[in-house]
Automatic annotation (TrEMBL):
It comes from the Bacteria. This is DUF456 domain-containing protein. Pfam families: DUF456 (PF04306). Keywords: Membrane, Transmembrane, Transmembrane helix. The chain crosses the membrane at residues 50-71, 83-110, 130-157. Signal peptide: none annotated.
């Protein structure tokens, strides 16, 4: 059973890293579940403090991933209409992943642009706000990638620390 948990946990941490770039895969939560599975093995002692803190980080990053593009829109001069357009574009990208990874970039940008154009019609302001949405998306992606790689690193460190208990068949004489 421990081997199954170990392999599944490893795969989830890797899929979590991919999920930091792919819109339909929630990267940080999946990576966290991979960590949880590792801690559920008999070989690795339970550490609810590490799991609790890492869960808090995963949830915070998940929430911030939706908030940051809207904040980027506002920071670059966008109005509520641009922020709302950015959020609508993000929802469209997640709901209809037709364009794949590019859709998660294009739709919030397009949503912020349309929201600003409908609000005041000034192209320069609209493009600045849409650029802010793009910068927010890139910031969120970098944040998710950093967290998922850190979770993967923690996973590898724990496996290395308890390797003889987790993988006894590799260390038999």
């Amino acid at each position: 059973m421990d081997i199954a948990l170990l392999v599944l946990g490893f795969l989830l941490t890797l899929v979590g890293i991919l999920g930091s770039f792919l819109p339909v895969i929630p990267g940080p939560p999946l990576s966290w579940v991979g960590l949880l599975l590792l801690y559920l093995t008999k070989a690795v002692p339970e550490d609810w403090t590490v799991l609790g803190i890492s869960l808090g980080v995963a949830v915070l990053v998940l929430v911030m991933d939706y908030v940051i593009p809207a904040l980027g829109t506002k920071k670059f001069g966008g109005t509520r209409a641009g922020m709302a357009g950015s959020v609508v574009g993000l929802i469209v990208a997640i709901t209809f992943p037709v364009l794949g990874i590019f859709g998660i970039v294009v739709w919030p940008f397009f949503g912020a642009l349309v929201g600003e154009l409908l609000n005041n019609g000034d192209r320069k302001t609209a493009f600045r706000a849409a650029f802010g949405s793009l910068m927010g998306f890139l910031t969120g992606t970098l944040m998710k990638f950093t967290v998922t790689v850190a979770f993967f690193g923690l996973y590898v460190i724990k496996v290395w620390e308890y390797k003889e208990a987790l993988l006894p068949f590799l260390f038999e004489s």
